[in-house]
Amino acid sequence: MTSLPPPLDPVQALERMMLIRAYEETLIDLHGRGRAAGTCTAVGQEAPAVGVVSALTADDLILTNHRSAGHLLARGADPGRMLAEVMGKRDGYCGGKSGSLHISARDLGVVLTSTIVGGELALATGVGLSRSMLGKPGIVACFFGDGAACQGRFQESLNLAAVWALPILYVCENNQWQAFVHRKETMMADGIAGQAAALGVESAAVDGNDPLAVFDAARSAVDAIRRTGKPFLLEAMTYRLRGHFEPDDQSYVDGAELAHWRERDPILRLRSRLERDGGLTAEGTAAIEGRVRAAMEAAAAFADASPYPGPDALTSDVYA
Question: Could you give the angle at the alpha carbon of 293 between the alpha carbons of 289 and 299, nearest 5°?
Answer without folding.
Answer: 145
